[in-house]
Amino acid sequence: MTDPTTPAAIGRERQSAIYRQGVLGRRPAVPTDFAELERRARRATSQKGWAYVAGGAGEGRTMRNNRAAFDRWVIVPRMAHGITTRDLSVDLLGTRLDTPILFAPVGAGQLIDPDCDLHVARAAAKAGVPYVFTNQGGTPMEECAAAMGEGRRWVQLYWSTDEALVDSLIRRAEAIDAGALVVTLDTTTLGWRPQDLNLGSLPFAQGLGIGQYTSDPRFRELVRERIAAAKTSGVKQEVEVTLGAIRSLLSITRNHPGKFWANLRSPEPRGSVEAFLDIYSNPGLSWDHLATLRERTRLPVVLKGILHPDDARRAFDQGVDAIVVSNHGGRQVDSSIASLDALQDIRAAVGDEPTVLMDSGIRTGADVFTAVALGADAVLLGRPYMYGLAVAGQRGVEEVVANIVAELDLTMSLTGARSLADITADMLQPSRDFASSGH
To answer: Is 328 labeled as catalytic in the residue annotation?
Structure first.
């Protein structure tokens, strides 16, 4: 009989803990199914917060494509396999992880909770899950790193039009012992997001999600230079005074480092927002830019947002350490290829050796199983943990990932997979129901 403290018991132990609480009349603080989690999170979130985190590009077709891609596959369990122990761990960029799960970078989490980044950092450290710090967070990466202690963290990089700022952000990532630099390629400009547009809501314009920048010495220098140049020019910008403008000014002032009343009298908070919107991302980002990374950092380099096999080949030919197959959770291009579909083409193109991660559409432990079977070395969670945060704060994040890991473990147990290496494409088959529906 297997020792209940071994990895073989992850799923059963999670189930048992919930059922034991049920005997006492207590239900989970966080729903164990995604549909109810999403419903509860929506009730707990502001209209603007929900639009930003849950919304997608255009008509939402890419978000639907992501889920439909999973529906096209079914798992085929094997019986009487006699396997009683399982190993969910994976080697990733020279580090052994307990599970093939990371927390994806999610920007402007302050819309959900003012201390979103710190809550997620602490939850990730407690759960043993690497957290990719968002470049568009409200809390400086140094504070998040301190909150994680020895927890593993990677750092996302949006490539600014100011190359000195790019270097400054990279140096800070190195200083906090980041495990990798994750360069996001698919947001050189914001996609068409009707949910936000219909509300006229851009969190960054309210001073939310720019904490990595206002804490950066090069960015602050840029802001001061712009303010000085504006004074020298003598041109005054006319601002229409409305109730909304006043609210925006107060939000910008509150979210800028320093004391509120000093910020209110200073041009720096407003100057920081304007500078951020002008330079945070580079629409001209090219492979020539990316080729400079090896000279600029000692960190492993991960490119996020790859969907075409030719781009994947070029990335590895340029010497990157890993890629993330991602369509940004359906938030950038409407009617884009599903990440899971792209994953299969990319894995076939690059072979078994390169490190390939995947995000967009992952909701459950069974989804993780399917993604691994189709070629992912690991996956990144986004919306699920943010919904857990909305429902129950840090505890909500912890419980969401615990539930997904438990289901992955149970799925492996029930299909005869002893380790992630055993989760292969021959454990899946195309869904006949999906095929018969005409898709």
So the answer is: yes
